[in-house]
């Protein structure tokens, strides 16, 4: 009798895990697209008006675009993103910085029916949602990575070497 192994599958828990991860990464893509549209529109408007582009805009757009690309890559069924959980940690930190930049500028403001100001307030909340999504996926990835390594200590795991991908 042939024993089936789950080693070749990207999701050991099967279809529910695959669906959950697909929905999670889709939410990350949605947050990234929303912030790209809002911040990109403001950068385009500033350029048309002849104003300079501040580094905050560039940083935020780069992080949004990079996280969109990575979330799309993580959607590929045969990639095991939990083994690269440190990438999720990196994006959680970058979204934390972006959220801090925009929250300090726009949360205290009273927009008084100003459409552009209101759009930027929406981008603050999308960046907070992206931060939480990336943070939770990093925590889950680290937990799953540790569990996959048979629960050994982190130090022992790195001493014996780790197969990352």
What topology does this entry show?
Blueprint: H1 15-48, H2 55-74, H3 85-106, H4 115-148, H5 154-160
Helix pairs in contact: 1-2, 1-4, 2-3, 3-4
Task: Explain the overall architecture.
- The radius of gyration is 19 Å and the shape is elongated.
- The mean pLDDT is 81.
- The protein is 71% helix and 0% strand.
- The chain is mainly alpha-helical and 165 residues long.
Order of helices and strands: HHHHH
Strand content: under 5%
Distance between the termini: 30 Å
Radius of gyration: 19 Å
The profile of the biggest β sheet is: none
Report the average pLDDT across residues.
81
How many beta-strand segments?
0
Report helical residue fraction: over 70%
Helix-strand makeup class: mainly alpha
Give a quick summary of the entry.
The chain has 165 residues and is mostly helical. It is 71% helix and 0% strand. It has helices at 15-48, 55-74, 85-106, 115-148, 154-160.
Describe the structure using short key phrases.
165 residues, mainly alpha, 5 helices, single chain
């Amino acid at each position: 009798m042939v024993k089936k192994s789950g080693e070749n599958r990207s999701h050991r828990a099967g279809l529910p895990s695959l669906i959950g991860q697909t929905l999670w990464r889709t939410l990350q893509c949605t947050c990234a697209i929303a912030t790209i549209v809002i911040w990109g529109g403001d950068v385009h408007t500033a350029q048309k008006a002849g104003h300079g582009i501040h580094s905050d805009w560039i940083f935020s757009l780069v992080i949004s675009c990079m996280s969109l690309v990575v979330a799309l890559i993580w959607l590929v069924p045969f990639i095991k993103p939990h083994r690269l959980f440190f990438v999720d940690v990196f994006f959680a930190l970058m979204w934390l910085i972006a959220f801090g930049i925009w929250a300090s500028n726009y949360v205290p403001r009273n927009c008084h029916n100003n459409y552009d100001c209101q759009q930027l307030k929406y981008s603050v909340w999308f960046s907070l949602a992206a931060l939480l999504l990336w943070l939770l996926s990093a925590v889950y990835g680290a937990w799953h990575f540790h569990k996959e390594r048979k629960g050994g200590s982190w130090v022992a795991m790195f001493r014996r070497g780790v197969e990352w991908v």
